[in-house]
Design goal:
Length: 270
Amino acid sequence: MIIDSHCHLASNQFKGDLEEVLERAKLNKISKLISIGTDLEDSKKCVNISNKYHNVFATVGVHPCSVTDISDTDWLQKISELSNSLNVVAIGEIGLDFFHSAPNGWDEKSYRNKQKEFFIKQLELASALNLNVVVHQRDKGEQCWKEIKEIIAPFKGKLRAVFHCFTHSWEAAKPLIDDGHLISFTGVVTFKNATLIQECVTQCPLDSFMVETDSPYLAPIPFRGKRCEPMHVRSTTEFIANLRDSSIEEISEHTSKNADSFFKFERIKL
Ligand SMILES: [Zn+2]
């Protein structure tokens, strides 16, 4: 049994066939799916999906690329209220994105400041609610990564973060893992040019990582370029098992255990 720790089931790309997508996940022995919220509306949809399907859980939060779309002054209160829903297992996805340029009407500096403000406020909220956080980070260089680490440092011991779609080296991962955080691998690890990530996969301890699809994006090889869906987390897990000279059973067992302790499912249903 494998847990897809990060998928976007509220995406329009799943609108037409969500039932079939979930059925295929089940046939591929995907035991739990975490549907990740990216703004207020999307988070609400994730909560609704998690209430409808017993093996789907939700996170709620504002993604760094969505911060300029939020006009509600009480957005944080709204996230807080949504987080009270039964199947919400973390705040996310939150973080910083310096890869995409500022949208129309925003200069780079104020856009980044807005992202930081949202990131910090949601970290504080998660810490107050005793929830962990799903962290997004993307950049053309290293600045974003540097700032994420600075922002998250004071929260050590108060919450755990999962650095989703991890694409850095093992040297970059190690201090985070030492601070109690997790990293998570998508289908990107299966790509031919992903040697840095593959090296990280072979070195990180079994209790330090999870697996995910980030579907509908980032389908692993051999599905690259197609719509990704939760069942594809099996290919990624298999690939990781091969790289580590391990079995898919062993990797599934440990990544599921890590997800269990991170998302604290036992508080909810089952
Ligand atoms: Zn995502």
